[in-house]
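Homework help board

Subject: predicted structure for assignment chain

Our instructor gave us this sequence and asked us to write out the predicted structure in token form, then describe one feature. I got the tokens but I'm not sure how to describe them. Can anyone check?
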Amino acid sequence: MSAIDEADQSRVHVYRLLARLLREPPDAPLLAILSQMTADDSELGRAISDLAHSAAVTDLAASRDEYNVLFIGLGRGVLTPFGSYYLTGFLHEKPLARLRNDMRPLGIARSDDVKDPEDHVAALMEMMAGLIDGSFGAVQPGSAQRAFFDAHIASWTPHFFKDLESCASAGFYKPVGRIGRLFMAIEQEAFEM
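My token output:
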């Protein structure tokens, strides 16, 4: 894995934070770590501070219950965190097939222990982190990162994160939605420069 600069390392951290929080409910050690986060006074920094405060006042059972209501539910959660669903209204559609085709040449493969389709928002956040830091074999150039972002993330995750931020069932996860919404806008703007 090649060394990356500080700005790219910060991007990796945000992508991995989003991936971890959206993959499964936080455990006690993660809530403790999150509650200690500090940030600057930028809009994204204030969202990170809000997440730290939320982690400090949320108990483990409440965060687990909220995750289940939002993303699992009895039949399905309040939100369906899959690209195919956001883009077509159905799971396992053409956006998932296109993603799988684009993953192969980048050295990205679905883990055998993962049950969700690859277009889950957490998986996509993890894939972007890997493209930036070389987790899949090589640090990908900005052009490859942008192509992947444009094809599989920019088209729907801003809507997903906005929905999460404004969801009546969200408490702990509201600042996660805000961080995601703001970060996706920052990434989009940076890729367009």
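Reply (TA_rk): Your tokens look well-formed. For the description, you could write something like this. The mean pLDDT is 95. That's the kind of observation they're looking for.
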